[in-house]
Design a protein that fits this description.
Elements (H helix, E strand, L loop, with lengths): L9 E3 L8 E6 L2 H11 L3 E13 L4 E14 L6 E16 L18 E5 L3 E3 H12 L9 H8 L4 H4 L1 H12 L1
Parallel strand pairs: 5-6
Antiparallel strand pairs: 1-7, 2-3, 3-4, 4-5
Length: about 180
């Protein structure tokens, strides 16, 4: 049995006509709390997306913008810091290939859309938006006191810890 995602909004392919559809999705408090737990962040205060859905030859194009206010834990202090996410998304839903088919590798450039596979003639707009939010999160958020706390703990700055910092340290040792 497949678990339903926390923020699921299923659209059947039969509901998508030849004309573009527009809409807005907003996560309620229960969905936001469940997503915060899944993403291991303290809180998601709001999450909305406006979108356009267009059926095409390559698949179902799903474009729009995501807005979310949330809290992430500072990577240095652990303190919850407020974060505003404002991101555009460009996703192409394509049918999941049959296991017996030879899969053709698709190479995407940075400017091209993300590809999400679907099955059972339905797509989940909510899960695609949730994944977009997750990918928009800073993996190492830093609060306003992070540099001071790092210095007090003896942690190296990014410049000191990086490859050029190591070269500078070697140069200092060599005199």
């Amino acid at each position: 049995m497949i678990d339903t995602p926390e923020f699921s909004h299923i659209v059947r392919l039969s509901e998508i006509g030849s004309k573009p559809q527009t809409g807005k999705l907003a996560a309620d408090a229960e969905e936001r709390n469940a997503l915060a737990l899944r993403f291991d962040i303290p809180k998601i205060s709001s999450m909305t997306a406006t979108y356009k859905l267009i059926a095409g030859e390559r698949g179902i194009a799903f474009t729009g913008s995501l807005a979310s206010d949330l809290h992430q834990s500072c990577a240095i202090t652990g303190e919850a810091i407020p974060v505003k996410i404002r991101d555009e998304f460009d996703i192409l839903f394509v049918p999941k290939p049959d296991p017996g088919d030879l899969e053709e590798e698709i190479e995407l450039t940075e400017d091209e859309c993300d590809i999400v596979e679907y099955e059972q003639a339905q797509i989940d707009l909510g899960e695609a938006i949730a994944q977009t939010l997750y990918l928009s999160l800073d993996p190492y958020p830093r609060g306003p006191d992070a540099d001071e706390v790092a210095r007090k703990r003896g942690l190296k700055s990014e410049a000191e810890a990086g490859p050029f910092g190591a070269l500078a340290a070697l140069k200092d040792k060599l005199g």
